[in-house]
Design a protein that fits this description.
Blueprint lengths: L3 E4 L2 E4 L4 E7 L7 E8 L6 E6 L6 E3 L7 E6 L4 E6 L8 E10 L11 E4 L3 E6 L1
Parallel strand pairs: 2-11
Antiparallel strand pairs: 1-3, 3-8, 4-5, 4-9, 5-6, 7-8, 9-10, 9-11
């Protein structure tokens, strides 16, 4: 089992950057595929970006391609989401999530994410 804690959210202006970080407990972090989800008020939760447990495969939803970058540092048990050129529509609570160990299926399969952080608020003003 893995426990996840997000940090780095805040209030920024459109065009600014933020870097979210997710710290994971345990010594087997490298076995988990990781994802960043977000949920805006009145909207469904969506997968924003994900990275395979090996780090060789990434996924981005269309609206963030070219602006967001997901990365992982297995030695530090962390996964980060670098968000550039933020837009008001990026405003949401952002959640870090992990799949079961050695999951190798589609990163977009939301039901495979078994472990979740508590979320961090990102607010982008226009």
């Amino acid at each position: 089992q893995v426990q996840l804690v997000e940090s780095g959210g805040g209030l920024v202006q459109a065009g600014d950057s933020l870097r979210l970080s997710c710290a994971a407990s345990g010594r087997t972090f490298s076995r988990y595929a990781m994802g960043w989800f977000r949920q805006a008020p009145g909207k469904e939760r969506e997968l924003v970006a994900a990275i395979s447990w090996s780090g060789t495969t990434t996924y981005y939803t269309d609206s963030v391609k070219g602006r967001f970058t997901i990365s992982r540092a297995n030695a530090q048990n962390t996964v980060a989401l670098q968000m550039n050129t933020l837009k008001p529509e990026d405003t949401a609570v952002y959640y870090c999530a992990a799949t079961r160990p050695y999951y190798s299926g589609p990163l977009t399969a939301s039901r495979e994410y078994a472990y979740w952080g508590q979320g961090t608020q990102v607010t982008v003003s226009s």
